[in-house]
Each structure stands twice: as C-alpha cells, then as structure tokens.
C-alpha cells in the first residue's frame, strides 16, 4: 500500500542524513518543514551551512525547536499538517553515550514520545524513524537480520534506539499508527558528521597527524553511502507498513507484526575491514596515514553487516555503492568545502 506525501516533517534537518533527505524531497517538489535544535554535539557551523543550502528552496521552512519540548511540538503539529514524519533527530554517537547518558534520555526517549503523540493526534499517515545497526549489540550471527532478536545492546545509544522501536510498535498496536523503523548501517558521504571515522581520518591525514585505529584495524563495518540511505528512506516513506497475517504470538517475528509496523535494515550488505577502509581513504587523498593502533573501545562491536532481503522485497532497492566510489566523493566534497 502506497502513500502520497506532499507535506513532510524532517526532524534533525540540519544533521547529516536529515539534510540529504530534505534536499532530495525538495527536489521532488515536496513541502518540507525541517526541525532541529542546533545542539553543540559537534561544530554547529556544519549545521548552519547545511541549512543555508536548504533555505534556497522556496518550499523549505526551518523550525528551531527541541523534540523534548512537548508544548513546542504540539504547537508545530497543530499549525502544520504533515502527510509523513521522518524522525532523524537524535542524540547520536555510541561513545558519547558513555559520558553523557542524560542527553540520550531527553532526545531519544522523551523527544520520541512527543513525536509519537503528535503523530497520533494529528492524522499523520506514516511515521518513519531512524533506528541503528547498533541495536544488534552482542549478536554475532551475520548478516544481521531484522528477524533476529535484539535484546542485548552494548551501549545506551543502542538501548535508546531499541526503545524507539518498542515505543513505535506500541503506538501501532494501540492506535493503528503506521510506523517504520530503519536500522542504518555506518553512514558516510559528503556533508558527513565531523565526529565520524571518515571525516576524522581525512582531516588528520591532510594535516599530517596520526589517526587512531581501533581494534588494531580489524574492526569490520557495513559502510553505507549516504545516497543509498536516502533512496531507501524515500522508498520506505511511500510504502505503508501492513500487518503480517502470518504473525504468530507463539513464535513472534521481531521484524514484522500483527500491527501496521515494520523494521528494515539499510546497509550495503558488505562488511569492510577498517584497514581496507583506511587504504581507500589514503588512495583518494594520495597520502599515507600515520596510524596509532588501539584496542576496541567500550560500547563498540567488532563487526556489522546487514541483511537487506526485506528492503529489497518490499521496496525493490538494495544499496550497492562501493567504498572506493563513496570515499572519493567525500574527499572531493571535503577538499572543496575546506579549500584544501
């Protein structure tokens, strides 16, 4: 079942993924309201630069508010009707959750309840929300499948994302709200977050500084290019989740439901060792990195790789951008943006 979306709320619109999604929707002719609190988790200048790009589109409206501000959220939804809401606003970062756990409770839990309540009371047709590959936690059977149990998170960030999935399912069950959760796998690309590995590596190598290589470079990640993420999100937005008639409470399937609720992985379906990822960065930069090998940090997992069979089956899309292509595009953007 498809849904037509003309008016969309994108939360976290000044963020990496939110910016790219808002721009794609605006180019398709949608009216987009972009919400962001412009917090200082990383350099706000990147967020304001993204917003400047979005503000060139006449159908874009920016609202500076915090998801955790219940009154502000109620007023926003009362003022503007939305066909689809895409919740990409969250306190991000696995490692940061070890030092500032309360930020995750405010944004990822309290803020998400506000989104659910506003969608419920204002006739939103479809709530699409960002989950994370981190919910797989201590799971080791790969590729990670949405039909696997994910009850053993290893960071508070992961736990908050798992909680979002549970909260959304509850609203699907109680109120028939169509909800789709998207587990993103290590997103990278132009306009990426400056706290993530590709940005940190590129900046350090160009400045002739050493890079920190965790788990001695043996970490494996399903690196997913931003354009593939956005293509997946847009396709899912138009695909209303339907109850699974075969769902059985004696053998509950975590990836579907008797309610109008679904979860999808969006990943490249390929695991790349960190050492190989760094080699691709070196090639794109034409410089060799000075490496400081370190142990794996608390909250990290050794490997991720996505099973995207359900995404392919339901919306006909499978991410496939090779890291060499994606990294080269990021480096080109980085050089242009920073004039280096």
What tags apply to this protein structure?
single chain, seven-stranded parallel beta sheet, 340 residues, alpha/beta, two-stranded parallel ribbon
Q: Approximately what portion of the residues adopt beta-strand conformation?
A: 15-25%
What's the number of helices? 10
Q: Roughly how many Å apart are the termini?
A: 48 Å
Give the overall silhouette: globular
Query: Strand order across the biggest sheet?
Result: 3-2-1-4-5-6-11
Report helical residue fraction. 25-40%
Can you put this structure into words, describing what you see?
By secondary structure, the chain is α/β, with parallel strands linked by helices. It has 10 helices and 13 strands. α8 crosses α10. The longest helix is centred in the first third of the chain and has 21 residues, at 101-121. It starts with 6 loop residues before the first strand and ends with a helix.
What's a concise summary of this model?
With 340 residues, the chain is an alpha/beta fold. 39% of the residues lie in helices and 16% in strands.
How do the helices and strands line up, and which of them pair or pack?
Elements: E1 7-11, H1 16-27, E2 31-36, H2 44-54, E3 60-64, H3 70-79, E4 84-87, H4 101-121, E5 126-132, H5 156-175, E6 179-184, E7 187-188, H6 197-206, E8 211-214, E9 220-221, E10 224-225, H7 226-237, E11 261-266, E12 272-273, H8 274-285, E13 291-294, H9 309-315, H10 323-338
Parallel strand pairs: 1-2, 1-4, 2-3, 4-5, 5-6, 6-11, 7-10, 8-13
Antiparallel strand pairs: 9-12
